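Q: Structure tokens for this one, please.
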Amino acid sequence: MNPASLSSVLSPRDPRYSLRTLVLYYMQALRKEVVLLSTRIAKMGNLLHSTVQ
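A: Here is the predicted structure, written as tokens:
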């Protein structure tokens, strides 16, 4: 990998490329949030279930 291609990766001239990268980062963050939220809901569900019984 030559330095020219590296600099083009760091500062992309193509706006679609940077947009796609932004979307990928956003999707990763969103997936992480969803996982955290679902585990929290599952814990609360278990807590409610144990208090009911």
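A few notes: Residues 14-52 form one domain. The two ends are 62 Å apart (CA to CA).
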